[in-house]
Amino acid sequence: MSSPRFAVIIPAYNEESHVGDVVNKTLEYANLVIVVDDGSSDKTSLGAENSGAIVIKHAVNLGKGSALKTGCELAFKLGAEKIVFMDADGQHNPKNIPKFIGLLKKYDVVIGYRSLNFKMPFVFRLGNWIISIATRFLYNLDLEDTQCGFRAFNKRIYKKLAWESLDYSVESEIIANIGKYNLKYTMTPIETIYKDSYKGTTIFDGIMILANMVKWKLMR
């Protein structure tokens, strides 16, 4: 395979019902899709492989941040110059990928944002609103949606963007690093489909994210 211009990295945990369809649709827009199976107990890896993704499987569940880091390491080894993050549950529409890649010509980082309307579960809307206020106060960044996992960046700024978080705090730590290093970023609207009534970050996760944001501000 020739060196890809970009790679799409999809962290996945027990997503056998969605990941195959996600990979199939993503391959319409990318020639390198890497699924990091983060210790799933179901057939997530098999579904991703059968659909054409390169799959790395963690022996145990290490967390989203760890899965994204594993995916980046492989993507760079394979020659990718740009990285796109997407979720494995079908919430993100791959048709937006070309828009992200196009914006990377002018920006270091591109962050997708969802419409914070009634279609988004209330706990997500509330948590996102609170974390957005904290982001503005701590890092002077005005973001529509701090927790959206659909985002992209250029390889050249990876060392500045690199995160230590192993869990769902990864999205917020990336944003903290954007502010710390004054990276050039933009936001772009995306369509988001909620296939499950409740998935992702919990209230406890949200509290930990806020605590980490304060810690990063004080220690960096």
Describe the fold and architecture.
The chain is an alpha/beta fold. The chain has a single domain (about 5-220), classed as Spore Coat Polysaccharide Biosynthesis Protein SpsA, Chain A. The chain is about 40% helix and about 15% strand. It is built from eight helices and seven strands. It has helices spanning about 20-25, 45-50, 65-75, 95-105, 120-140, 160, 170-180, 205-220, and strands at about 5-10, 35-40, 55-60, 80-85, 110-115, 150-155, 185-190. It has a seven-stranded mixed β-sheet, with helices on both faces. Helix 2 (about 45-50) links the parallel strand 2 (about 35-40) and strand 3. Helix 5 (about 120-140) runs parallel beside helix 8 (about 205-220). It is globular. The model has no long low-confidence stretch (mean pLDDT about 85).
